[in-house]
Design brief:
It is a single chain. With 563 residues, the protein is mainly α. It has a domain of 74 residues. Helix content is 77%, strand content 0%. Helix 10 packs parallel to helix 12, helix 12 packs antiparallel against helix 13 and helix 26 runs antiparallel to helix 27.
Length: 563
């Protein structure tokens, strides 16, 4: 017999002998340990406990003969631990070491799907997201076709990837298979609901009204509803389970969105409230408010208010009173009460929001509006003063959202302050108005006059001396206000005269400048009075300013003022 033939025969005999031994004696203790560790680890992975599973896979990889399999599942575990980049590096290393076939497809597919999900959650470019889902679907499709039982957890991410690619039939098949393996996983039912609703949208076409939907669209919507409701049932009351809390929140949101399309807004409001009660920052409040508004009307919808009340109540039942996450919900609850004309409830909610988060400084503006609606002028003034002290820029921004209406309200309360000789309060309101109406000199003029009036009140009522430092500080502020007004309207004769008055009678300085300003005021008033388009109010204003400027100039020259 030739040597090479002998060598081949001996090799075959050795293989047969080893196989016979394995049959006779069974797997080694190390092999059994590897299998057991991987099985235990996979059960923990299936139960969403990757931290507990990872040491088992690491131990399996360290045993004789366990390196490739243990390492495979360790890398899979890293994906659930948020170590996707490290996992990809490890997969590349296994590939270089010779790993191929379904195992490599499984690992790459799972890693690409996880990376796509991460990019989606963090707002990465959409094209990158699609390409990752596309790669994931290709790899996972080959893996589950080869070994559907071994890679049972891949069916879910195959469904997610193909759904994101709008391959709805393929996604539907994959999620149904995943449900065979994991019928008690709420995430599976959530995804089934989303896929069914996407299929409903296709079947619905351009028909917005449920009455116009074809039968197939109704059937798919019913499937989506059943899936969402079952997912909520499986989530239960997950107080100590952040993963299930997140699934419950997303299920409630997606179900609420579907209910809006069905025009079942009351139930949608309840679902939004449920979502917010678990995760107050999971959804944009203004979007929910818009979605829950009744169709074909601008009237506010009580569903938004009911959703928020339920959300706040549920949140307080589940989380400690010291948890500040409900501050946004309380703010929007206050805003909703305000929209509905429920002003006392609105103020209560706004104040509670501030108690939970004092940084919501714009809340003071809304408290002021609520108090205005309740005819609580002193309370409105205090709210605006607080807002002005904490963040003048933010208050002005809020005022400028509806400047005409807001200025009208502050004008009214300013007049109330003057009537009750609350000149400093009126001055603050005028300053807020001046910064809001940036190109209107009237408010700067009012501010200067009000500060002068406060100084005069102190002289008359309290016997203060004009040279008192506090009064001089008021006069300096008044001077600054008048100058700000002149910067906006340098050709206004009345404003020019009033500014010069501050120098002559109150600050008692710069007579040369005061004279120049009086002469300019006289000229400006004359020019204005010669205009044909001057309205009656401005005519009277400039006539009075002309008379005053002449009188003040005579006093400056040593003469007497007009009576």
């Amino acid at each position: 017999m030739k040597r090479e033939h002998l060598r081949g025969a001996l090799g075959a005999l050795l293989v047969w002998t080893l196989a016979s031994c394995a049959t006779l004696f069974g797997p080694s203790a190390a092999e059994l340990a590897v299998r057991d560790l991987i099985a235990q680890g996979r059960e923990l992975l299936d139960d969403d406990r990757p931290q507990a599973a990872e040491p088992l896979f690491e131990e399996a990889a360290a045993l004789p003969g366990g390196a490739p399999r243990g390492r495979l599942w360790q890398l899979r575990c890293w994906m659930d631990l948020g170590r996707s980049n490290e996992a990809l590096d490890g997969i590349d290393a296994l590939k270089r070491d010779g790993l191929d076939g379904p195992e490599l497809d499984y690992l790459y597919g799972m890693a690409f799907a996880r990376r796509a999900q991460w990019h989606l959650a963090t707002g990465v470019d959409a094209s990158s997201i699609f390409l990752n889902f596309q790669d994931a679907a290709a790899h996972l499709g080959r893996a589950v076709e080869a070994e559907p039982d071994r890679f049972r957890d891949a069916h879910f991410l195959l469904a997610r990837s193909t759904w994101e690619m709008s391959e709805l039939e393929r996604a539907r098949d994959a999620i149904e298979t995943s449900l065979v393996y994991f019928p008690e996983k709420a995430a599976n039912w959530l995804l089934k609901g989303r896929i069914a609703f996407s299929q409903h949208e296709v079947a619905r076409g351009e028909a917005d009204r449920p009455a116009d939907w074809p039968a197939s669209a109704h059937a798919l919507w019913n499937e989506a509803e059943a899936a969402f409701r079952h997912a909520l049932e499986l989530c239960g009351n997950p107080l100590d389970d952040p993963v299930r809390q997140a699934i419950l929140t997303q299920t409630a949101i997606q179900f609420a969105n579907a209910l809006v399309w069905k025009r079942e807004r009351d139930e949608a409001a309840r679902m939004y409230g449920l979502a917010l009660s678990w995760s107050p920052d999971a959804i944009d409040f203004d979007t929910v408010r818009a979605w829950l508004r009744p169709l074909e009307t601008d009237e506010p919808y009580r569903g938004f208010n009911l959703a928020l009340r339920a959300a706040v109540l549920g949140f307080r039942e589940r989380f400690p009173a010291t948890d500040p996450r409900d501050a946004s919900m309380l703010w929007w609850l206050g805003y909703s009460h305000w929209e509905l004309g429920e002003f006392e409830a609105a103020e209560t909610a706004f104040l509670e929001a501030l108690a939970h988060n004092p940084d919501f400084t714009n809340t003071w503006h809304y408290i002021a509006l609520v108090r205005y609606a309740r005819d609580d002028w002193p309370g409105m003034i205090e709210a605006l003063k607080t807002a002005w002290e904490l963040s003048p820029v933010e208050l002005v921004n809020e005022m400028q959202l509806d400047p005409e209406l807001n200025l009208e309200k502050l004008d009214f309360v300013t007049a109330w302050c003057v009537e009750h000789e609350r000149y400093l309060d009126a001055a603050i309101l005028s300053e807020i108005c001046a910064e809001t109406a940036q190109f209107d000199p009237r408010y700067w003029n009012n501010l200067g006059l009000l500060l002068r009036d406060e100084a005069d009140r102190r002289i008359e009522d309290e016997g203060a001396n004009v040279t008192d430092p506090e009064l001089q500080a008021l006069y300096e502020r008044a001077w600054t206000a008048y100058v700000r007004g002149l910067e906006i309207a340098p050709d206004d004769g009345q404003l020019m005269n009033d500014t010069a008055v501050m120098l002559q009678y109150y600050l008692m300085r710069d007579e040369v400048l005061a004279r120049t300003m009086y002469e300019a005021a006289i000229g400006l008033c004359r020019e204005a009075l010669e205009r044909d388009d001057l309205d009656e109010a401005d005519r009277l204003r400039f006539e009075k300013a002309l008379e005053d400027a002449r009188s003040n100039l005579r006093v400056l020259d040593g003469g007497e003022a007009d009576d």
